[in-house]
Amino acid sequence: MSLDGKHIVIGISGGIAAYKMATVVRLLRKEKASVQVIMTERATHFITPLTLSTLSNAPVLVDYYDSKTGEWNNHVHIAAAADLLLIAPATANTIAKCAAGLCDNLLQAVYLSTKNPVCFAPAMDLDMWKHPSTRHNIDRLVEFGHHIIPPTTGELASGLVGEGRLAEPQDILAFIQQIFSASPQPLKGKKALVTAGPTYQAIDPVRFIGNHSTGKMGYAIAEHLARQGAEVTLVSGPTSLAVPAVGKIQRVQVTSAQEMLEACTANFQDSDILVMSAAVADYTPIQVAEQKIKKSDSQLHIELEKTTDILATLGAQKKPGQLVVGFALETQNELENAQGKLARKNLDFIVLNSMRDSGAGFAHDTNKVTVVKRSGEQLHFPLKSKSAVAEDIVALIAAELPAKDAQSARR
Ligand code: CTP
Description:
By secondary structure, the chain is α/β, with parallel strands linked by helices. The protein is built from 13 helices and 21 strands. The model has no long low-confidence stretch (mean pLDDT 93).
């Protein structure tokens, strides 16, 4: 794909992989992109600005001021002109500074001023890449909606072998082309609230009542909503899943049904879409023991009370224009039960999983669903990966939203 008309700002930070950027600049220019290179002071020790200015056909910027002309390099203008900012190689230091919002050089100032897509291509030694601090910083960049071009595995400058090599120039080019060729995003400007995973209801300080939900379905829905341009708040019960590395997804981690209710209530008013895929506990212990319950009698009775039905509560508050999707996990009378829930909870769609279908439900990577619409229409989907099921559900949401928008306009 040609990048004709695209202006790409490249920020080079100080790592040995900086030498590969000569090839990246050349490849981008070959695809007809215009390129502006910014370097950190340290990067200039690894590759000369002269090499890069020759290849990019533009002066390379390092400081806030041009020492020869005395002119100010206006970071706001540089950022505004960028169709995309590529930070490569992104060192652990530059990644940490971007995650923390520091602004001690021109590259940081441009990064903080950029509104268009930002891609990071990290490169560092394998232990630096694995360090919890770097992991945390990468997660933050992903939460900000940035793209990460993952480093590859191989021989590193230190002589060690592992993950941390800058992606190959051809792959960096392909990644950028893919961003520009991505299909139009029908959910751009929409806010979505998605719940995922189980809830844990405490019995005592060390025990809880939970369920087998992994969160995979909800995380896949959050990912596909973000891919279609929605700004997603992902309220997640305890899971081991990472925030999907696409678009704008902000995760709120909760443990109990009550915490999930509070997080959802705080976000629902502002949301255009709610997808309630979490497996919320229906009952919770009335008393949570302050100390670990000791083994004594042969039987132990724990008294439970109903939790608030989050979906029914929010469904009752639904305004014209808001689209609400629930899930139903059933073992018998599936369609009848699902339709009952759809009406009771004031939903637009309900996604029905039957535990009778093999490969569906918790702890599988696949799912088989039937979507029942408020109109009564039923859509039966075959067994698919959870990601493909999420794609189907998001496509139905995107198709329904224009009618919702019209509903809210008529108000
Ligand atoms: N749900 C909720 N709050 C609860 C329980 C469930 O928001 N306290 C939501 C789930 O996230 C799901 C939908 O309600 O989207 C249906 O959940 P499900 O467990 O299938 O149904 P329940 O209404 O709990 O009824 P039952 O367990 O009797 O089938």
